[in-house]
Amino acid sequence: MDKLGAMNAFAKVVALGSFAEAARALGSTRSAVSKTVMELEHGLGVRLLDRTTRRVGATEAGLAYYERCVDILARVEETDLQVASLQAEPRGVLKVNGPTSFGALYLGPAVADFMAAYPDLRIELTVTDRFIDPIEEGVDVTIRIAELADSSLIARKLAPARRVFVASPSYLESLGAPETPEDLGRRACLTYGHTTTLQRWRIVRDGEAVMVPVQSVLCSNNGDVLRSAAVNGRGVAFLPTFLVGPDIAAGRLQTVLDRFPQPELGVHALTASNRYLAAKTRAFVDFLAKRFGDEPEWDRFQRA
């Protein structure tokens, strides 16, 4: 038996004083409502209604039960409305995760502007370069810059993430700019990872990927460290434009090997599902997509 449905049917009968009127209000039949109330009485072991040919009225126990039913049904309706409002209006706590460097440079300022537009929201932003499972860690939106593998997560591309080879003007003046990917083997390279040994860069040339051995003089798992070293003339780095765009625009870095454009990674928003996506999550992802777009500010820096 649907207990809440039965309580609702009983409450309608008491309020309207008639099985027929209750059935009309519920979009049901008189016999179905009568059967439901009888099953409710049987389950409780108490007679709730006095039935005559002229009217239906609540017994003493029925009146007490009716008052509790009205209270419970009102609370259920209020809860439903509150949950539905979370789907309709951005509110509550929004949990966001993103990469360290991108989070500091672009995601943090975007979050601040988003908060101004939605003052009822509270935001928890964490940054890490570790790929997390948003479902397992209770995160609403995860921002990732990568070639995404197949998964159950819903991914939406927010913006392109181009990568370029860069070095400082002083470094290029002293050793010359590399003309081919193989020339990188004769240059000091600043590589991403955890060790300087056996470093290879995967470079696409004429549509085919080749693994080019490089001399890693500095290896770091933080792009800001590599960018700083490149600006200070320590070698060639292969970095996303969101990190080095302003340096290119200011002349602190120059791009090399421009004849060999590399595949984009893409800035993606990952969510658990978009079927019943909460309004706060949907609004935030839409906001980021509009803010970054197909021509993000880091690439506008690059072409300035």
Automatic annotation (TrEMBL):
The keyword Mitochondrion does not apply. Signal peptide: none annotated. Pfam families: HTH_1, LysR_substrate. The keyword DNA-binding applies. Keywords: DNA-binding, Transcription, Transcription regulation. Residues 1-59 form the HTH lysR-type domain. One of its GO terms (molecular function) is sequence-specific DNA binding. It comes from the Bacteria. CDD domains: PBP2_CrgA_like. One of its GO terms (biological process) is DNA-templated transcription. Belongs to the LysR transcriptional regulatory family. This is DNA-binding transcriptional LysR family regulator.
